Amino acid sequence: MFQWKPSFPQKPSPPTIEQQSEDMNKCINNLDAVRMQYMQDSECSANAETNTCFQKLGDLLVYKRNIDNSIQDLNNMFPRLINISQQLQDMSDNVRLKAYQSIK
């Protein structure tokens, strides 16, 4: 007559890119959170030297920080590059117009 239905908790939604970035920024100061994931890497098996794994982990975090800084720098330079491109186009148009006028 009545059937028992199990109630399972709702599956959590996947983290957003902002949440992932925030987590990675937290891990730069606290290597424990990343260390466990990185230790599963085949290069860092249980037989590998711990110092080598920590060095590789540190290198990866430095690379990640450098990439983040490069992205920020590119985002800052983009409007200036657009402006310079427009100025060059205007100069090119002026030279073309003067050349055309001198031919007349």
UniProtKB/TrEMBL annotation:
Listed name of the protein: Uncharacterized protein
Ranges where the record places region Disordered: 1-21
Domain of life: Eukaryota
Organism expressing this protein natively: Daphnia magna
Record-linked Pfam families: UPF0449
InterPro entries for this protein: UPF0449
